[in-house]
Amino acid sequence: MRPALYTIIAEVAPGVETAWNQWQEEVHAQRVLREPGFIACRKWRDAEPTRDGWTRYVCHYELTGLDAMEEYLGSDTARQLRMDSELRFGAMMRISRQMLTEVKRLG
């Protein structure tokens, strides 16, 4: 089975950045990592702000394969976390997602 990477790009408004980071690290990522097939999460911060001053974060969730990702996306956990995110941060956060599968490991 080929490893997979679930990439979340989150742009967060300055007024909620601290609260979002705390929630993302202490609640969201912890719940996701308890799901079957999730191995680890690495979180990155863009060195440059967006044009409108928001901060961009990129979270890479490593998975055993795409089947684990598909199972997660259909789960109650995924639905609950997305609803929680929307209720807490709504228009103060912009999210995009990618599901990637490994083609080749180099190096």
What is the CATH domain class?
Answer: Alpha Beta
Q: Summarize the biggest pleated sheet.
A: 4 strands, antiparallel
Strand order of the largest sheet: 2-3-1-4
What is the ordering of alpha helices and beta strands? Answer: EHEEHHE
Number of helices, where a helix is a run of at least 4 consecutive DSSP H or I residues: 3
- Provide the CATH architecture: 2-Layer Sandwich
Distance between the termini: 20 Å
Computed structural class: alpha+beta
In terms of per-residue confidence, which ranges show pLDDT below 50 for 5 or more consecutive residues?
Answer: none
Helix content: 25-40%
The CATH topology is Alpha-Beta Plaits
How many discrete domains? 1
| Rg, nearest Å | 14 Å
Characterize the overall form: globular
Strand content: 25-35%
The count of β-strands is: 4
What would you note in describing this structure?
Helices cover 36% and strands 33% of the residues. The chain has three helices and four strands, in the order E-H-E-E-H-H-E. The protein has helices at residues 17-33, 66-73, 76-89; strands at residues 4-12, 38-45, 55-63, 93-101. Strands 2-3-1-4 form a four-stranded antiparallel β-sheet. The longest helix is centred in the N-terminal third of the chain and has 17 residues, at 17-33. The radius of gyration is 14 Å and the shape is globular. The mean pLDDT is 95.
List the helices and strands and how they pair.
Blueprint: E1 4-12, H1 17-33, E2 38-45, E3 55-63, H2 66-73, H3 76-89, E4 93-101
Helix pairs in contact: 1-3
Properties at a glance:
alpha+beta; 4-stranded antiparallel β-sheet; 107 residues; Alpha-Beta Plaits; single chain; globular
